[in-house]
Specification:
single chain; 246 residues; alpha/beta; Undecaprenyl pyrophosphate synthetase; six-stranded parallel sheet; 15% strand; binds 3-methylbut-3-enyl trihydrogen diphosphate; binds magnesium ion
């Protein structure tokens, strides 16, 4: 039996975020260059997007390239950018067919003109789709995002558009790149690493974290189901006591 049947559709997370990690190790195990792992990660993305949409998940955020990933060898960075452009181009049709809206967070201009334009075309083409929103985190880091938010708030205060007393949690959230998305209820990281690596720091304040040893290119629908079931067996207390929650 697939674990899909064990998922309670009533308590499905609205937003799942994934740190897709382990492509390099997956390739190394096969004696192949790291990019071979990235190429094989695309199939895992397809499966995950399809599984999430089929279940009725509303938002899926995938960490595809971090600010720090720019420090990798040039040959890998170039190959990743090429793969990104190629994948966006080839997958847009599937997104359209499945009524999925594409969005992106991060320093998108740093992707270069071709990457940026390709991304924008796909975002515009899928803008009216309603089944699920797929958010790609590209050249993204949470600290970068928080600094951007601080700068734009400071600018408004300086120009008398905003009073310091008006700054609160909600206002701060509204200045992040994720302003129009709810916070994720579940964050998955593959490859056995138990760290956040500068992903969504503000937004995961009360997110449930799930770490799996599976390397990203091996991640399949069943792995997503397992993560959701694990999440559904937890008690989210938000600082309250057990008695208050139930
Ligand atoms: C994740 O896999 C993909 C990106 C960060 C772009 P890695 O490339 O980090 O793979 P490992 O962690 O070296 O195995
Ligand atoms: C995090 O993975 C970034 C992405 C998955 C895009 P990394 O492989 O870059 O993270 P570290 O270096 O292991 O922390
Ligand atoms: Mg890694």
């Amino acid at each position: 039996m697939s674990s899909k049947e064990k998922i309670n559709r009533e308590t499905l997370p609205d937003h799942i975020a994934i740190i897709m990690d382990g492509n390099g190790r997956w390739a190394k195990l096969r004696g192949r260059p790291r990019i071979f792992g990235h190429e094989n990660g695309v199939q895992a993305v397809r499966e995950t997007v399809e599984a999430a949409a089929e279940l009725g998940v509303k938002y899926l955020t995938l960490y595809a390239f971090s600010t720090e990933n720019w420090n990798r060898p040039r040959i890998e960075v170039n190959a990743l950018m090429k793969l990104l452009v190629k994948s966006i181009r080839s997958e847009t049709k599937t997104l359209q067919k499945n009524n999925i809206r594409l969005q992106a967070i991060g320093d998108l201009h740093s992707l270069g003109r071709t990457g940026y334009n390709e991304l924008l075309t796909a975002i515009n083409k899928t803008a009216h789709n309603t089944r699920m929103t797929l958010i790609l985190a590209l050249s993204y880091s949470a600290q970068w995002e928080i600094v951007q938010a601080v700068k734009s708030i400071a600018e408004k205060v300086k120009n008398n558009k905003l009073a310091v007393a008006e700054i609160n949690k909600e206002l701060f959230s509204a200045h992040l790149t994720t302003a129009s998305f709810p916070d994720p209820e579940l964050l998955i990281r593959t490859s056995g690493e138990s760290r956040i690596s500068n992903f969504l720091l503000w937004q995961i304040a009360y997110t449930e974290l799930y770490f799996t040893p599976r390397l990203w290119p091996d991640f399949r629908k069943e792995d997503l189901y397992e993560a959701i079931i694990n999440y559904q067996n937890r008690e989210r207390r938000f600082g309250m006591t057990h008695d208050k929650v139930v």
